Amino acid sequence: RNVLRKIMRAIILAAGSGIKTKDKHEDIPTCLMEVGGESLLQRQINILKQYDIEEIVVIVGEEGDCWNEKTIAAIKNIANNKVIINPNNANTPSSSSLVLGLQHFEPQTTLVIDGDTIFEKNLIKSLVENKYDNLLFVEEAKGTLGEHLVLRQGEKLQQIKPNLLSNEVFTGLMKINEDMYKILASELQNSANQQR
Residue 16 CB: number of other CB atoms within 10 A? Predict the structure, then answer.
């Protein structure tokens, strides 16, 4: 299906362990790190709104040194109170935060963005305007022996090796259509249930 669909929403995954501030006195969520005079999160939201993506939810953490009332309040302020708290962020992968975000909405075309990703607005434009319903931006990844872990043919992803570790491939931006949304929500929930 190569029909352009308007993307109305985005899920920003920001429940990570955070970073040290310049003065090394406290940890802050990475999405609150300043880039060019504004927080990374504010920058992401501003870019999304330029493309009429107004329904934005941010998944934050509850566990870890960077998560406290002050940092959660700052994120709520930036995200207009559209925040979901992952109560087990320190013990689960970011896919558990994605499950929370996917469960929050009814399935429809959605952007998923890592909260620590710096990107130019033209990248969001290419996601929004791309003819493909499902897109995943992936950096080149090579294994310890130099073998390709992500196989591409031109612009199309052909295969992700099954033994690939999540820290070997960066997937900071993706667009999923309604059908993929349902599949991803189901598969991630099944995987989380099996790990319990």
Answer: 21
Q: In what order do the strands lie in the sheet with 9-13?
A: 83-86, 55-61, 9-13, 110-114, 173-176, 135-137
The HSE-up count of residue 84 (CA atoms within 13 Å, CB side) is 20
**Single-letter residue type at 149:** L
pLDDT of residue 77: 96
Rounded to 10°, the helix 94-104/178-195 angle is: 130
Distance (Å, rounded) from C-alpha 39 to C-alpha 89?
21
pLDDT of the residue at 46: 95
d(CA 79, CA 113): 14
List Cα–Cα distances, 47 to 95, 171, 188, in angstroms. Answer: 24, 19, 28
CA 116 to chain centroid: 8
Q: 117-172 pLDDT, tens per residue?
A: 888 888 888 888 888 888 877 655 555 554 444 445 555 554 555 444 444 444 57
User: Among the residues of the chain, which ranges form H helices?
Assistant: 40-50, 69-78, 94-104, 121-129, 178-195
pLDDT at position 5 is 55
